[in-house]
Amino acid sequence: MIDINFSLKGGVVTFDDFPIKEGQSLEVYIDDLKEDMLQVAFPEGYILDVGWRPSFEIDGKFHVVLIKDYDWSSPIYSGSAENLVELKENINKALVVL
Question: How far are the Cα atoms of 31, 34, 65, 75, 81 from residue 78, in angstroms, in the given order?
């Protein structure tokens, strides 16, 4: 799992299929780059979702969304990242909303 302490905001990891480690090329993880990689539930109906699109394509991107009350059509936060550094930045931006 990505090295972020979600519990500081009351988050509970509900799905974790994120084996990517810092310092390694994303090409090593091509079979792990998919739409559903990480999901964290937070109090008051918030969900943070992380995935890669298009799945299994090295020219894709990580996508981060924060939704409330299962309203996937109107995310509270939405961002994308090409690497782990940008991904962490996007996750932290989403967590500021909480």
Answer: 24, 17, 4, 6, 11
The answer to whether residue 1 is domain-embedded is: no
Q: How many domains does the chain have?
A: 1
pLDDT band at 42 (very low <50, low <70, confident <90, very high): very high
pLDDT, mean of residues 60-87? 97
Q: What share of the chain has pLDDT > 70, as a percent?
A: 100
Asked if 95 and 48 count as a contact pair (C-beta separation under 8 A), the reply is: yes
Q: Which two tokens stand for residue 32?
A: 């792990």
User: CB burial class (10 A; 0-12, 13-18, 19+) of residue 51?
Assistant: buried
pLDDT of residue 3: 87
Nearest to 62 by CA among 83, 47, 77, 41: 83
Report d(CA 68, CA 73) in Å as an integer.
10
